[in-house]
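Hi L.,

You mentioned the student needs an example of a multi-chain input paired with its predicted structure. This one should do, with 616 residues in total across all chains.
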Amino acid sequence: MLNINKTVENGKAVFALEGRLDTVTAPDLENEVMGSIEDVNELTLDFAGLDYISSAGLRVLLAAQKKMKGRGSMTVTNVNGSIMDIFEVTGFSEILTIE
Amino acid sequence: MTIKLNGRIDSNNAAEIENDILAQLSGQEGAPVEIDASGLEYISSAGLRVLLRIRKNHPDMRITGVNSEVWEILDMTGFTEMIPVEKAYRVVSIEGAEEIGRGANGTIYRIDRDNVVKVYNNADALADIQHEREVAKLALILGIPTAISYDVVKVGESYGSVFELLNARSFSKILANEPERMDWCVKEYVELLGKIHSTVVPEGKLPDMKDTALAWARFMQDHLPAEAGNKLLALIGSIPHDDHMIHGDYHTKNVELQNDEVLLIDMDTLAVGHPIFELASMFNAFIGFSEYDHENIKRFQGFDFETGSTFWHKTLSAYLGTRCETKIREVEDKARIIGYTRLIRRTIVRGETETEEGREKVKMWTEELLGLLDKTDTLLFSRNELELEAATGNLDEVQLFVDERLAEVDCPPKAQMQIGVAVEEIFVNIASYAYAPDKGKATVRVEVTEDPVTVTVTFVDHGVPYDPLAKEDPDVTLPAEKREIGGLGIFMTKQIMDDVAYEYRDGQNILTLKKNL
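Structure written out for the whole complex:
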């Protein structure tokens, strides 16, 4: 289960995620993000409600990061300890801007 | 030769009675004698001496129909140890009595506020009563809460055994009248079931349920296509011997709530065996018996088919410790194989196939049984193992199943997520590559060992041999634009687990994850 709460305003998009970002739910997030960031220059992924991420979720983050490259910034916020570990193990803590 | 004694025998009339008896027995020295004491109200020592003198010429003497006052005298004077003495059976009426339970061998009625009587179907039931008393005692000693009969009585032409059962209500009654207590009933019912199934029975004390089931399967050989018949026999034959207790007729009329205590009654079907046999009889009680005619369960249990089905499903879920539907269905299907076997046999043996309805039932159950036999390779099951189609759509079921097992060992959240990630990476890998483009099954097994507490998750599939660990690790130091996502899942799995191992054995890919908690 993944709930995606999206707010887009003045070129700023915030995606607040709740639940699990896994093989089953990652395509939903990918569609949402890729379909709505054409005119966005500041993308924020709020992980406050996210308690799980697998490689399928990382793949979406990487794709979004690549897409935002050259047109603005992407920030991941409120990452919990377990997910932070995953970022560190995979080197994603170096790639992503994490607040 | 029977001698009837009446009224009172004491020093006033002992000599007269002795002469009378001697006259009746004259010329029959050595013949067995039955003293019918059903009319005897009192006997003094003078009377007892008469009996002893007669016994000298008739060593094979027994005294029958003894009332409780006379029994006291015979017992106190040591007569009951010298001479076989049979008590008179109290007569109990069940007219207007409420039926509170019904089992394979008899029906239980409440005769007053504190007592119930189990009336046996078999007119010559003394041996059955003795058996049930013995097994109930055995169960009580082994820690199963049950009631033991304290008296044998005559009910019409049948025998009955009397139990004390104060203010007790069966779970069937609770389910029928207080549906809001269903979850409470499930919890208590499953707890008692777990207690029964974890009780080890000393060898030879109880019959082996496997023998009974094998007899059913042999009977079925004449009623199934040869291949299916052989498979049924082989499936039951390969269930290993199990010395744990099973009740054998564990439905909700046989579980009573007495004040705050949950009691098991109707113990005559007690046996030892694998729990699948128990689940089979439970399936029959809640579903099988009433599958053709849903009104059946209402007549028997007092609640409707839907209540019975819901109770059964919740019970199986709690018993297996899972809400994973695939798992529940897997075990239910195994139980149905034995359940239908029993139902078909029962219907044929009882001659019910003389009727259209009987034939319809047998046809329906036989079709179900053939379908189940076709897709089943074992009747064994484990709470720790889940077999399902290797498909990404089943990931949630796998995660649920693994999480439930982890919840039982108080797994910390971080380790739980790491195990979850590893499980996902491996399962999705199998789902994507093991059988592509065809379909196939995967088995997920979760084991926990102590000291240090270690969780081991094992994946088994029969797909193409493939070692995911052989793949080169990705370079995780590259910047985003140079990153490839492939191989990251397996790399993560290796990093966050304490041990990951692969082997190909007997046509199976076996991948093992270990995590120390």
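You could point out the following to them. Residues 21 and 53 of chain A are 5 Å apart (CA to CA). Chain A touches chain B at residues 22-24, 51-56, 58-59, 62, 65-66, 69, 81-83, 85-86, 89-91, 94-95 (CB under 8 Å).

Best wishes,
N.
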